[in-house]
Amino acid sequence: MSDLQDRFLRLREKVLVKRPILEEILKKKGDKSLYDYSSDYIDVNLNPPILHRQSELLTTIHEAATERFGVEVADGVVAQLEKYYFVSTADHVGPIVHPFFLNSNLMIELPFHTHNDPVLKYVVVLACANVSVNNPHSRALIFNTAQGEELKQHRLSFLPSNSHSCSVYNMRAYMPEEVTKVRKRLHEMGRDEGVPKGTEERIESLIDEIYNTSDILTAPSYREQMSKTNIRLWKKFFAASKVKRPELVYLEQEDIVVRLITKYHLHQDTVINHILFDPKYEPYINNYFEGIFGSFSRAHASGTYLFWALPKGSKCNLQLWRKGNYLVSKDETYKIELTPEAIGEAMRNRELIPSLLLNFITISFYYGLKCLGGFNQVNYLTLMKNAYIKMNVDLGNYRSIEVCSRAQTKEICDGMSLAFLGYDGGRSALAYGLDLILYDRPDSWDKIVSLSKHMTLGEAIDPLMPEIYKISYDQTEWEQDLVDLTEKDIMHMKGLDAKIEPCVEIREG
To answer: What does the alpha-carbon distance between residue 484 and residue 399 come to, in Å, rounded to a whole number?
Structure first.
């Protein structure tokens, strides 16, 4: 065994120790092609209790979609969800250009083309908006150029650097003067960074067409701007292929959860009402959800108890803990009583933001919605589900157990390598969304489909193991020889670089 193989096997083993659900998925389905694996997305477990609750969720999604995209789109989305009760929750709100989110949505699209049902019209995304603006996926338009054998990445951001610590959930809209700055920065790239004139002109035209229109500039928030612009951007992918593709519908999971709780759970006798307000539930929540990623840990003072606070004038989220009948910040500068009236008003004012745990308790465990996600989500969502069931067993909530037991938490759509960019006569790298527009060609979609039929789930995830390793372990625990492994090392070792045929390519001239 070569040194490279040995290092990769040690790396993979260490990752899967921290990601046992990912290990289970790879053992069961790692040899399936991406094409065949994605076909399972549309199979959904439904039972009478889920169907009984389903109308509340669908009514709420219809309301949110109507406000943003109009009643025709909302009707179509709900008609689809009634039959195919699943969404993606993999995305973070931001331009849909990063390979993580680009590929996750392309994976979801694949079975739409073979499952011949006219109701399948939309890739529905409930994206996470409660991420910081400095999240690499939330702020920048990214594209690549090639200078000889070097691939160069360029980033354009509408939001200023002093907004990096802010939550996207409450972030203001970008303004016309910030679009002007982006255009100026683009011209500097052409002058100083070797961006070809034709590429510069195409990006500028794209900015004007998608990001610099009156309806986008008058939108009240950055998240609404991203929602609407992502739909327009998505339509431009694979335009030269002339293939009929589903539309993208992009909403925020926190907004859906706030609407659901406000309308159906503040005053009604539901398990969510008891989780929020019933002191009898607190010890069970503390016991079963302690230490789960995306939940909270009192022992390590991480996460938050059901909500984050973002008081008026504050840029950063405040961690909250339950003390008696109040949620209180660590420094006690923020305090709110756990009453339906106070919590409802604070959510409506966007002063309280539902946590990741509360989001999934609501949409996945209570309403039974199938949520496709990434390598992190399949792990923590399954652990959350198990904890939720144990809590409800102890409390004798058998209807809640029946619904949650059918919740599907182990299907991964994010973290796969599918769309590749070719350059320098044979080299390849993961493509970004803008690359699909800049370097599009008539056979680009055919190449996506072809690769999905020849690359397995395991092969698609293995090159990302170094990145997953760094996320899974604290930097003080990193082993340098494992950190030094690269995506290219693994692709070469496993022969993937010979298997990959890029869907787009930078060609000289």
So the answer is: 50
Query: What are the start-end ranges of the H helices in 349-494?
Result: 356-360, 375-395, 398-405, 433-438, 444-454, 457-461, 465-472, 480-483, 487-493
pTM above 0.70, yes or no: yes
Question: With the C-alpha atoms ordered 207, 509, 234, 169, is the resulting torsion angle positive or negative?
Answer: negative
Helix, strand, or coil (residue 321): strand
Q: Quote the CA–CA distance of 338 and 262 in Å, as a whole number.
A: 14
Q: Left (φ > 0), alpha (ψ -120 to 50) or beta: where does 495 sit?
A: left
Element (H, E) at 188: helix 176-192
Angle at 155 between CA 449 and CA 468, to 5 degrees: 60
Could you tell me the sign of the dihedral formed by the alpha carbons of 387, 389, 395, 397, in that order? Answer: positive
pLDDT at position 418:
92
What is the residue-wise DSSP string for 48-69?
A: HHHHHHHHHHHHHHHHHHHHHH
SS3 372: strand
* Cβ-based burial of 290 (10 A; exposed 0-12, middle 13-18, buried ≥19): middle
Report residue 116's pLDDT band, with 50, 70 and 90 as the boundaries.
Answer: confident
Structure tokens at 170: 């409450």
CB 372 within 8 A of CB 41: yes
**Strands lying side by side in the sheet with 504-505:** 427-430, 420-423, 504-505
Distance of CA 213 to CAs 54, 93, 205, 223, 420, Å? 36, 20, 12, 16, 30
Place of tokens 């399936």: 32
pLDDT of 66 > 70? The answer is yes
Alpha carbons 156 and 142: distance in angstroms, whole number: 6
Alpha carbon distance 389, 406 (integer Å): 11
Nearest to 94, CA basis, from 186, 177, 156: 156
Please state at what angle helix 48-69 crosses helix 71-83, rounded to 10 degrees: 160
Decide: helix, strand or coil at residue 173. Answer: coil
- Give Cβ neighbours of residue 251 (< 8 Å, ≥ 6 apart): 61, 64, 65, 68, 124, 125, 126, 127, 227
Angle, helix 48-69 to helix 398-405, in steps of 10 degrees = 70
pLDDT digits (tens, 9 = 90+) for 39-48: 999 988 777 7
- SS3 per-residue string spanning 452-476: HHHCEHHHHHHHHHHHHHHHHCCHH
